[in-house]
Amino acid sequence: MTSVLSARDVHRDYELEGEAVHAVRGLSLEIQAGEHLAITGPSGCGKSTLLNLLGAIDRPSAGSIAIRGRDVARMGDREITRFRLENIGFVFQRFYLVPILTAEENVELPMAERGMPKRERRQRAAELLSFVDLAHRRRHRPTQLSGGEQQRVAIARALANRPTLVLADEPTGELDAGTGAEIISLFRRLNSDGTTVVVVTHDEELARAARRVVHMRDGRIVSDEVANDGL
Amino acid sequence: MRLTLALAALRRHRSRTVLAVCGVAIAAAMLLDMVMLSTGLRESFRDLLLSRGFQIRLAPRGTLPFDTEATIPGAGAITDTLRQLADVVAVSPVLGATVHVPVARAVRGRETVSSFALGVLPPVQGDYELIGGRDALSAEAVVANDDFLEATGMRIGDTLHLGTGYNPALRDLAGERRFVLAGRARFLYLSAGQPAVALPLATLQQMTGRARDDRVSLFMVRTREGSDVAGTQRWIRRHVPAVDAISTTDALARVDERLSYFRQLSLILGAVSLLVGFLLVTTLMTVSVNERVGEIATLRAIGVSRIHVVHQILLEGTAISIGGSALGLALGLVTARYLNRILSHFPGLPRAIDFFLFQPRAAWTALGLLVAAGIGAGLYPSWRAAALPIARTLREEAVA
Asked: Residue A78: its chain B contacts at CB < 8 A?
């Protein structure tokens, strides 16, 4: 297997109300292409901070993070932004769709940023919305969609530029159990198609769906287990 | 896509956007009006001075035309002298006086109407435009303006008596002459509501008596097109020492001096309007960005570049500024027309003067400045938006 992501001795410290917080303490992690990884742990253990670092929307205080062999910590803002656009798909707990755009336009957004011609991106958006079973809702705005539907649109948006890595932060956190199960199933389908998926979650069901589960406590990895078979 | 996003963002809070556009429109209208006011009066005065092609005016030494009751002696000789100049194509001597005309009590409840009278040489005069009837070509003919006709209740063809003095105790007119009202005229340099008549110069000189015999209040001189006006002016100053030769340029300089208050006021108010427009767009865009930090951080997270975030916010500010300026242009023109109508009754100023004169170049410059200010106003909020720390903003949004 090929390594997609390699984090070595990563630290992330910041100040919160005048006090130093050591959110990630000397953490190392290797993620292979096609893996489905869940990061679990109690609140405040540094899971989301780690995900932000792995997704290159935050920079480590020390250590290195390489995605597809490139050290993202050393990239300038322009380069890293472009890198995220082309290589990383994000799914957030609160979906964060642009409320003024339709589902289709939300999915098109990363493709437009990449400079893809309109016809091509419209076609790709249609394919992705079909993949998440929302073809019939493509003209609806986020406020006209349920939480589960919004999260499916967010997943379609994350896949728009065929990313190497999809990172999801508590993707079922705002959803009821039934809807959460649909999202879990979607991530499994995604992974079975070859996409590398990293999910930060409290949700045991979602964690069980992953082939590998990393457990964190106090900014460190305390266990890293590979299941024989996911669900 | 950025344009779609920008317009959609403006549509999201429709009433707020409409109010902002209205606010910018009011600032733009005010700015436009101030620009029109700062240059309009001067340009309007210039157009008025040149409307009949007279570039030089000769007034009694040390005065401005019709500023005092002083007159220039030896008018005939001066006229002859000026006519001999190669570059001079017309000389129009003008005598100003107050005349009184008896009216029927039943008509106006007054015994006489006082009116300004201009003694002119009708074929070369530059003081009025005939708008009805015939010119005052014979010694017993006068032309009058509408204010005179309204005040006296007279019509073209009526006979009237004019006197240069009136004794109310004796009800006696001094220097009385009988005239025929030959035509209606619009007097170019008179203020609104001022009754006026024009009659042949020689007749008025005779009516005013020996004191004004061969005297005039003013000469207007028209020079050949393309000739050296300044040279002619210098020549007159040397050879006709009893007068001040004032060219249009000099007159405008004096007008400029007298109107410096207007210019300063309009410049200050214009700058205030510009600042108001700037602050309005900055405030709106800052509020808008503050409301959307989560959305902007998400855009940044999924790979939208800082510059594109800046573009989008700037586009929103620009759209508000352009919309407001376009609306402000219409509003400014309507306001200017309304104010012009009110100010045309400003005492002592010719009715034909426009306080607010639309000059395309000045107007476009002003509105361009406002649009530029609007774009500039979007810079700070757009930069703030682009500089948001992505991870921290998303974390704070999640907690909120």
From this structure: 305-306
Q: Alpha carbon of B262 to those of A48, B115, B140: distances in Å?
A: 64, 30, 44
How far is the first Cα of chain A from the last one, in angstroms, to the nearest whole number? 22
Residues B96 and B153: beta-carbon distance below 8 Å: no
Closest CA to B259 of B349, B186, B175, B326: B349
Partner residue facing A93 (CB), from B12, B299, B398: B398
Cβ(A231)–Cβ(A204) below 8 Å: no
Extract the tokens encoding B358: 């639309």
Pairing of strands A212-217, A220-226: antiparallel
What is the 3-state secondary structure of B43-79?
Answer: HHHHHHHHCCCCCEEEEECCCCCCCCCCCECCHHHHH
Determine what percent of chain A is predicted with pLDDT higher than 70. Answer: 98
Q: Does B111 touch chain A (CB under 8 A)?
A: no
Torsion, Cα A89 A95 A101 A103, to 10 degrees, reads 80
By the 8 A CB rule, do A137 and A116 touch? no
Q: Does A105 contact B390 at a Cβ distance shorter than 8 Å?
A: no
**Residues B266-312: tens digit of each pLDDT:** 889 888 988 988 998 899 889 988 888 888 999 999 999 999 999 98
